[in-house]
Amino acid sequence: MADTNGHIDKPRVLIANRGEIVRRVSRSCKALGLTPVVVYTEPDALSLHVLEAEVKACLGPSPRDYTNAAKLLEVAKAQQCVAVHPGYGFLSENAEFVEACEAAGLAFLGPTSATMNMFSRKHTAREFAQSANVPVLPGSSIVTSEEEAVKEAQSTGFPVLLKATGGGGGIGIYICQDAAEVRKQFAAAGRQGKASFGDAGVFVEKYVQRAHHIEVQIFGDGQGTVVTLGERECSIQRRHQKLVEESPSPYADDAFRKDITSAARRLGEAARYRSAGTVEFLVDEDTNKFYFLEVNTRLQVEHGITELVTRTDLVDWMLQLGVPGLQKPDLKAYRHEPKGWAIEVRLNAEDPFKNFTPAAGLISQVAWPDASTGVRVDTWVESGTEVTPFYDSLLAKLMVFGSTRAEAVKKLQAALSSTAISGIPTNLEYHRAIAASDNFAAGNTTTKFLESLPFAPQAVEVLAPGMNTTVQDWPGRQGLWKVGVPPSGPMDALSLRLGNALLGNDSHAAGLEITLAGPRLRFHTPATVAVTGAAFPVTLNDSPQPMWTSFAVSRGDELAIGNADSDSCGARCYLAVSGGINTPLYLGSRSTFPGGKLGGVQGRALRPGDQLPLSHGSSAARPGLSVPSAWRPRFPEKGNAWEVGVLPGPNGAPDYFTEEDIETLHTATYTVHYNSNRLGVRLQGPRPKFARADGGGGGSHPSNVHDHAYALGSLNFTGDMPVVLTHDGPSLGGFVCPVTIASTQLWKLGQASPMDAITFLALTLEEALTASLDLQHKESLLRKAATQAQADTSASSSLEKQATAFQPSLPQLPHTQALLHSMPASDTHPGAQYRLAGDRYVFVEYGPMELDLNLRVRIAELTKALEQQRLQGLIDMTPGVRSCLLEYDPHTLPLQQLLDTLLAADAKLQPASSMALPSRIIYLPLAFQEATTASAIQKYMKSVRPEAPYLPSNVDFIAANNGLKGADDVRQTVLEASYMVLGLGDVYLGAPCAVPVDPRHRLTVPKYNPARTFTPEGAVGIGGSYMCIYPMESPGGYQLVGRTLPIWNTFGRTPPFSRDQPWLLRYFDQVRFYEVSEEELKDLRKRFSQGNFHLRIEDSEFSMREHNAFLETVAGDVEAMGKRQKACMRKQMQLDEESLERVKAQEAKAKEEKAANGHAETANGHDKGVEVTAAFTANVWELQCKPGDKVASGQTLVVLEAMKMEYPIPSPVKGTVKACFVEGSQVTNQGDVLVVVEPEE
């Protein structure tokens, strides 16, 4: 580091490289008292070598800047470096760079430029080797034409190698069996040499068919002293690039070892070699002769195994030799006395099953073996690293050390077994096959080793992904609802659970959820599978297969799942595989949450080319077993309504809804809206009257409440529109929920399609618990039958008999009603209500419907008391503003026991008014009324609601609703406020429900009605009296005021996030905004994501006693403000009512006009046309053609929007558009004709 005068207290060394070698050199620098200076390009900003660096400099956006000598030297000068370590690759063997460093006064930690020039051309290196009495392969000097190359090849004797003289890493090398192949490859070898190394020279060399690649590590002082540090066997290669290295060589005996190391020493001494280098030899197994190949004038990738067996540190030596002021290594005193055996494997981002095709993408899981077991891992990746296509595929070098080769091989097998790299294809499984092979154990490792290695990945390859196919497991992520992480998991849990049981899998095994249109998959390993759920056609190698019955799949088989049956109800099916799909666990689950880009395969739906790893410990399922018909989900006939069982609460009648509302809810028929998805199923139906005129402090609409946690499956009224909150939904919000769907009934919402009808049937707690226990029993029976030694053709009837005989024992349950228990308010207690929220949740709320921090503190004390009890069966506790939702397992923790525990805990709580809480103050930048938030508003106006008092400006609406003069007043209030976080997960992942500590800053405003389908990540909004920051792109209802930094970091790779806490905020934090411009925010967001911008965070204590005293001093101002706000809210509510009536009238008029003219023409008049139809019910997001347009086959004609996803509909033919039957924002049904195209003749 530098002192205040800019003086450097430690010598600095620039490391002109990237990745794992930078970390390796940095480690030695620090050990020797040097400061490493790390450089990086923007694509590498989140590489471990950058994140860990104390001193670092960005070279720029270009991934090629690691070879920009001028920029590297600029950094070295600016950072006052004394030396440059080049690592390997890039400029490490560039003589001009060496000279440029030395001209700049920098010590180059490697060989001299003269040495590099001597060995950089293979033909001159051969000549120098011969002069040093080192044997070389028969071959030629540079050849200048095909015919000359053929002549030299014939003289040498086939087969031969054509080699680019400036080459390395297998580039520009071709095996030629005859003259024709020489002619064919001559130009390619020169072209690759020119492109990669700036030299098109090519020469001919004898090709040894039974060969070993053995190299010797040398180190010289540049004055003629050279030592050898043993040999390394590097014969296991693909495309002439090393995969496995070991030291010593299993091929070499003592006499051979002495000869080959002596030859390497002679060569090094003749060259007066300086620093680390490697002399590579080719060994002919048939003759036991070795031949010089080349000298790598740099530190070798595999130097680590030499360090392990010699107990030396080659990087230390390089630094000590070259950095001024350090004690130079005493090479003359070195005695080569190796001990033990070391093996290294290169773990690469590549697909061995596809000829080692490079693989880029997100690494979702990295796990290394324990280093204490004789394992060393040099790597630059961790969970969450994005592998770009710009650089070498090397991810890590895994090295093991043993006293013998047998011990080292055993350690290698164990280390590979305990290593995990998931998310992208790698060669990890391939290395396991190498290490387990008999040839490897015997040391038979020639350069043709891999040609006879049998290998097939334990995986399923995605040939075609289907419309929206994701990995899901049941019950998904648990225990994180309190911070807004949804459970995800299967929308139809019943079908996946039965499918897993059918295979003998654990109930938590991951499978595929398939929506509307299924995938085509190739199995690279045998398996037993089952397809369950709605009716989809299933084929194996084009042969039809039954659903709900397990069947065997062989290696190489193709399984195809078609489109959902349009004549039946149901939108999803599930593929279960024996043992389960083994994608990485993220926060305890493999389930995909696409909105948060987490879980499953890189947090997204499947794509072509994805590899789905299967568990190695596959279940012992036997094919041919069927789920009894009576156990399968009952789908209604097409056109009939889904009957969905619900329980009352938490927000029932008469306090939130009228009795008439509840009766209507149970008798009316609702229709599924096209904009339903895994986040929530929107419904269209009767508008409730509500029991309240408004939401009080929670908002001006009667559906608004102070933010509380939602139960999975709750029917949530966002304004007047009901939405069933499902598996990817938000945990927290400010809307009422009159009923909650029973857990065993929720699968029906997962199968409902747009325009389906739904009715709600009232259930009792006894009915719900009985159904849950019954399903669990059926799973157990089915799993047992699946793992019997032999398939039983009568198993289904036997299973049905066993299930019928099952009589579950139920605990005593309270009466089924929304309000389970009420505690009146008193001088010492705020009052409490204990409410039912389905069959797995209890909802506790304190005090009146007021925003009172004392109530939130009491909730905090209640959850703390329950945590200390470690109550078995209590899964999660999610606080709201004045409430808490408790999720429990009714099979383990009876509801009455939970209620009794809650009452006992409450009785022991201390008054909140005496509490003092830790409260961090976090300062965040805010770009007010920023462009991306404006774009979200425009999208809402186009696809959801064209007019409203809050459109087109949310900020103007906030001002009008609070009696402020305009946008400037809103800006000032937001910037002056200190927002205390009362809840997390308001709109998903760690999103705050935050309220101004000073009530004079509490702007009150209703949320969108209905909610938006899209909000940008980082958007800042106000709803009710609360501020929220959106952590991801998602639906939402807050009125948007601007944008700030991300508050969620999936892998917690940069501060202040962490792997265990990928969310920024905590309960009772205070957020304070400061204004920045859009351009400033853009820069800050970039720097923050790269870990280069550190938030200002101050620790403090929040005293409730002081806060309550402050409230008394401002009570008059707050009362006056509240009166003003109510008057303004009434006016805006009236305007909203009038707007809604106009919107409804416009929609009705459009429907009448459509019905009256039938769109003027129909497809019937276009006999020559090809009809392009809708495969599913959706909203027409965009019409991209008009009659008369010439279109190409595959060109997008219409973009449909459904389930929060946009789907382009292409033209099936080349031709002319004859007619369009839809327009933007119109709802079209499955099978409707969208466009007619007349094919070109």
TrEMBL record:
It holds the Pfam family CPSase_L_D2. Residues 9-455 form the Biotin carboxylation domain. Its cofactor is biotin. GO terms for molecular function: ATP binding; hydrolase activity; ligase activity; metal ion binding. Residues 1169-1238 form the Lipoyl-binding domain. The keyword Signal does not apply. Gene3D superfamilies: 2.40.50.100, 3.30.1360.40, ATP-grasp fold, B domain, Cyclophilin-like. This is Peptidylprolyl isomerase. Residues 126-323 form the ATP-grasp domain. Keywords: ATP-binding, Biotin, Hydrolase, Ligase, Nucleotide-binding.
